[in-house]
Amino acid sequence: MTFTKVLIANRGEIAMRILRACRELGIKTVAVYSEPDRNAMHVRYAEEAYLLGPAPSNESYLRADKIIEIAKKSEAGAIHPGYGFLSENADFAQACEDEGITFIGPKPEAIAKMGDKGVARATVKAAGVPVVPGTETEEKLSDEDLLKLAPDVGFPLLIKATAGGGGKGMRQVNDLEEMPAALESARRESLAAFGDDNVYLEKMIIGARHIEIQVLGDNEGNIIHLGERECSIQRRHQKLVEESPSPFINEDEEFRQKMGAIAVQAAQAVDYVNAGTIEFLVDKDKNFYFLEMNTRLQVEHPVTEYVTGVDIVKEQIRIARGRQLGYTQKDVKMNGWAIECRINAEDPYNNFLPSTGIIQFSSLPTGPGVRVDTGVYLGFNISPYYDSLISKLIVWGETRGQAILRMRRALEEYRLVGVVTNIPFHQSLMEQHRFIAGNFDTKFVEERFSIEKAEEGKETNPEIAAILATLVAHQQTERAAHIIQRGKRDTSNWKWVGRWERMHR
Amino acid sequence: MTFTKVLIANRGEIAMRILRACRELGIKTVAVYSEPDRNAMHVRYAEEAYLLGPAPSNESYLRADKIIEIAKKSEAGAIHPGYGFLSENADFAQACEDEGITFIGPKPEAIAKMGDKGVARATVKAAGVPVVPGTETEEKLSDEDLLKLAPDVGFPLLIKATAGGGGKGMRQVNDLEEMPAALESARRESLAAFGDDNVYLEKMIIGARHIEIQVLGDNEGNIIHLGERECSIQRRHQKLVEESPSPFINEDEEFRQKMGAIAVQAAQAVDYVNAGTIEFLVDKDKNFYFLEMNTRLQVEHPVTEYVTGVDIVKEQIRIARGRQLGYTQKDVKMNGWAIECRINAEDPYNNFLPSTGIIQFSSLPTGPGVRVDTGVYLGFNISPYYDSLISKLIVWGETRGQAILRMRRALEEYRLVGVVTNIPFHQSLMEQHRFIAGNFDTKFVEERFSIEKAEEGKETNPEIAAILATLVAHQQTERAAHIIQRGKRDTSNWKWVGRWERMHR
Amino acid sequence: MKYITTVGEKEYKIEILGDGKVSVDGVEYTVDFEPVSGQPVFTMLVDGRSYEATIHQEEDDDWIVLLHGHRYTANVEDEREKRLRAAAGIGVDDSGEFILKAPMPGLVVKVPVSEGDEIKQGDVLVILESMKMQNELKSPRDGVVSRVLVKDGESIEQKTEMVHIE
Amino acid sequence: MKYITTVGEKEYKIEILGDGKVSVDGVEYTVDFEPVSGQPVFTMLVDGRSYEATIHQEEDDDWIVLLHGHRYTANVEDEREKRLRAAAGIGVDDSGEFILKAPMPGLVVKVPVSEGDEIKQGDVLVILESMKMQNELKSPRDGVVSRVLVKDGESIEQKTEMVHIE
User: I need a surface site. Which of B151, B168, B364, D38 has the fewest CB within 10 A?
Assistant: First the structure.
């Protein structure tokens, strides 16, 4: 448990996040990378860096064997898996343990139990945690069984893959007739994605919010929670905006502590150690149901860090080093309001189609109350191999209103050229009345929000845009004409380019 | 008092700071600029921007008449002066008032009283605030008078300009014999700098710290303080590092409240409105003496913002709009620890000689607990016309130790090419034992700290530097050889440059 | 120089008069226009109003202007060129073929249309998996599927032609 | 290619062998060296160790390498050139004149030395005000002031010759 060097088995912004925590703790770092990531920030930031293999994840960031080999070769005493990739792979956690390498996360058993959604539901239910009503069994159910059980669960319902995550292998079913086809496609998708076609049924909670509780547990059995995160702003089960506290809970401290206590119970049910998140669905009447547990660091952990002041990644490392939790439940206080926008390479005007390309210009928002977590830089290639997350823009304000106003300011400052981003989506959302009022559920973005509609009536300035484009085009034409007599060319406006070019020849 | 548009009579990082606050409050903004600042961030960020004149301050940022004219023309209802330039000019504040424009700051009378150091000392002393022992009079004293009074004040002492600031017209005198020459040069310097050769004497407090208290007052006479800032890390009376809380006060809440209460008294003595700072000298035995009051926003205000959560600039604007203070003294709580490093264009290896040049590359530190306030950008020209402040790097940590470690991490991440910076100075300081122990006074940097000495024994890597330089030089040579056959040139490494060049032709 | 610049549905006749003067549909403006340090960032002051925009050119030669959080697509044409082109009868061809090309490399999950299908605007032509997401690529107009060039499970490069619509 | 590279007092014989191989004073290293996106930023991996540095060339042709918070000044010379230069007896001239030039534009506040003065290393030659600061410009070595070309109160441009030391 006493390690002084950590291997970070991840890439992008989360690798940078973990590297920074290690740096601040005086811990040495080892990066791993795929071929296209040779120049990535995490490779340059770490003290050591080793190639894993080609771009596809299963030839690089999913190569558990190679990662463990590199950890041993570089004498890294611990591995931080980040999120995604190997982070919820019980076999990998076990393999680390077998090799005497500390896995910075929970025990393999806890990962395995929470990884099988059926087992997870049964386990937490036994511990007294309410679950979404559904098929209550750990066994594999045939289509026949499921068709028989469906009316008891009630429609509409969801078919879900027991090995699932990220919305894969999930189908909404409105009546019995739709069931057979939906079962078939859900099983097919699940098999393709997870190598397992087992599914179960869950009742659809109408108008539900997705609210999750961050927990931390140490090796001595102390488990605390760090309050909630509101994650209902999602699209196709992909979270887009998260905040802490939840506007639905806000000042209802009693409800917060009730959810928190239940979350701690769920974690205790699997002897949970390190950082984890219990996701709940919450209905209008403040009934809440266990959805699943993420046995790893979440993308959206910074909003909790901002309001509690707890550095979750440093705390993960301390726990993995065998230390007691640095906090008791009483120490944890929420202060102000934090919001995170996920800045993705996706076109909000075109069905959120992912975009690829090289970052030609980037200027990050700064100033008071703004945090940016990112792994991209000028010249970085947003490739189709990995997810479309460019950066996380997180702001803090004394109140939710101030946080929203600050987020608007920060979004406006953000400049990115070379790839299409969803920044305009976030800008529209931050001006949307229902969002500002905190009045939304998990279907909000899909059913009630349209960027085109949100932008209707918004003041635009096509004439100014036309003048700007014309001036740039004009200048380009002029330059093309001048380029023959290079020595003489206009130096006033283009002085800098000239300097820049000289510098790089 | 009800304004919806603010003119920002400043440039650089502080103009950006104020613009951001206005943006977050939904207030329209007007920027002013000198010729070389045409492309500056504050010009691009504001909704409106108007030229003041050529580079020298007295032809641009000090042109009170022109600034007021622009405010009237653009219908800005208020002017924020930032710091420096016209911020402590009582005539300017009065001129604004006369024109019906809200000056975002204190009343002209308060500025005038605190601007004359002799009057200020007498005023606060009458209000029961301890002042550094010295010549206690508001009248002008001749050399003869001063030579007579000097032995009573005691040696060593300081000759100070009553109109002074920033260390100008200040001389240390160790005995009576040195007095006449020191008086002459102090008067000469003061006359040149402030158009006034009046001076006074102050006893030197040995081993003193510079600790200041931030205050806020509204139009209804409510005045509160936001705790202290430690500013002892300075060189030639220029602050380099500031923090809040002060390691000298730390958990002595009683002492903090005592200093705070005295600071509030000093502010009350001049019916102070808006944000201001009372500077104290504090000796080893926790005796403290009024030094001066800065009747404006301070460069180092962000450390207070980080630990109290109060947005000082927004609060300034609210007060100027006639609102009551948003906080009572009881609401103000300090949480964690914040440190600011001033990143200056100065060479720490060469007597802090200022450096000028164009920013050829800039990469700011980001991630948790880091704030950067800056007005420079890629291509910006650091000119000799204005001060050498490139940016302010501010970090927050749960404890002072964590803040120092985070500052080290952030300094290491900061990349700036094109101008020499004092980043290595800050890096050495953050590793210096006495600094880490919080054991320093205002003479620390000048008398006890040497970057060369601090770097002795530090692990360096000249061989790696040699390899890197050689490879870059080699590549440059190769490229020079290739440039004739342009079409064929190596595209692997230099692909990006090619793209970039095409883009800009 | 005279230009015809189209933003959205609207056409502007813009003339660069020199000395910072620009005329738009006959109205003259004084503009203070500057590129910022060789970056694709531009600043323009018009009557004291400050505009900062990032501007870059797409592969189809359109200019993308990001201004105050709004994205504009601008087509800039030299007036003379445009006149010549119009005279030659080039352009303005709405009846032609539409070719759906892969906007990024990826895996074809499904092609829900077949050759000969009649389709409506908005119908899904291909489901392409990329960046760990399944993306529905839709038809921009009504028509008939004339060719299908990819099949389920196929890995394709960017710009691969996938479906033709007539 | 063979180079002689000097960092501080130390000289390194560096040979670029190609294929990512470099030899330093006869010891061979495998280096994975890459410029980062056309910026003055470079990344190098040697035996798994990762080094990121910003590198740029000064006007006097020295290279400034900022690596892990330390600033190195490196002089890189082609071995052949150096040999030729040494044979011709150029360079290594410590006895010559030192000329203090203004490192930035500014106002001469004071010139505390006069022609003919004997001075020591570290003596202040000129006080120059710039960026709202008074800066003391000191002599890098002992000598005699042979010329003073500026006077108190004078505004000067960058690189103006101010004082000669012999």
Answer: B151
- For the question of an ipTM over 0.85, the answer is yes
Which two three-digit tokens encode residue B441? 């006074």
Mutate to test the interface with C, among B8, B29, B39, B504 (most CBs of C within 10 A): B39
Chains that touch B (3 or more CB pairs under 8 A): A, C, D
A296 is known as an active-site residue: yes
Classify domain B209-454 at the CATH class level.
alpha beta
Domain boundaries, chain C: 2-78, 89-165
Contacts of C34 in chain B (CB under 8 A): 38-39
Count of CB atoms within 10 A of residue A58's CB?
A: 9
The tokens describing A114, both together, are 């929470």
How confident is chain B (505 residues) per 10-residue block, as mean pLDDT?
93 98 97 97 98 96 98 98 96 98 98 94 94 85 92 92 80 92 89 86 93 98 98 93 97 97 97 98 95 96 97 98 96 97 94 91 95 95 92 98 98 94 95 95 91 82 96 88 48 36 37
- Which among A209, A229, A296, A321 is annotated as catalytic? A296
Which CATH class, in words, describes the domain spanning C2-78?
Answer: alpha beta
Which tens digit of pLDDT belongs to each residue from A45-83? 999 999 999 999 999 999 999 999 999 999 999 999 999
- Residue range B5-104 forms a domain whose CATH class is alpha beta
How many CB atoms are located within 10 Å of the residue A130 CB? 14
Contact between B366 and A360 using a beta-carbon 8 Å cutoff? no
Cα distance between residue A357 and residue A46, in whole Å: 25
As beta bridge partners, residue B241 has B233, B341
Chains that touch A (3 or more CB pairs under 8 A): B, C, D
User: What's D89-165's CATH class?
Assistant: mainly beta
**Domain locations along chain B:** 5-104, 133-203, 209-454, 464-505
pLDDT band at A349 (very low <50, low <70, confident <90, very high): confident
Predicted structure pTM score: 0.90
CA dist., res. C50 & res. B46, Å (int): 7
Measure Cα distances from B299 to B15, B167, B178, B313, B341 in Å.
Answer: 11, 16, 35, 12, 11
Asked if B48 is an interface residue toward chain C (Cβ–Cβ < 8 A), one would say yes
């692990």: which residue's tokens?
B459
- For residue C74, list chain A residues with Cβ-Cβ distance below 8 A: 465-466, 468-470
DSSP state of B369: T
Supply the pLDDT for residue A1.
63
DSSP string covering B332-364: ----SEEEEEEEESEETTTTTEE--EE--EEE-
**Kind of pairing between the strands at C49-57 and A346-347:** unpaired
Q: Pick the range with the lowest mean pLDDT from A260-264, A288-292, D110-114.
A: D110-114
At A166, the pLDDT band (50, 70, 90 cuts) reads low
Dihedral angle sign, alpha carbons of residues C122, A345, A210, A175: positive
Instruction: Please check whether residue D36 touches A, CB under 8 A.
Output: yes
Query: Among all residues of B, which ones are annotated catalytic?
Result: 296
Shortest Cα distance, chain C CAs vs residue A412, angstroms: 6
pLDDT higher than threshold 50 for residue C22: yes
Chains that touch D (3 or more CB pairs under 8 A): A, B
Residue A502 confidence class, pLDDT cut points 50, 70, 90: very low
- Where does residue A401 fall: left (phi above 0), alpha (psi -120 to 50 degrees), or beta otherwise? alpha
User: B492: distance to nearest CA of chain A, Å?
Assistant: 13
Which one is predicted more confidently, D106 or B226?
A: B226
* pLDDT at site B495: 34
Q: Which residues of C touch B35 (CB under 8 A)?
A: none
Sort B38 into a burial class: Cβ within 10 Å, 0-12 / 13-18 / 19+: middle
Domain A133-203 in this protein, CATH class: alpha beta
pLDDT for C88:
65
Cα of A469 vs its chain's centroid, Å: 36
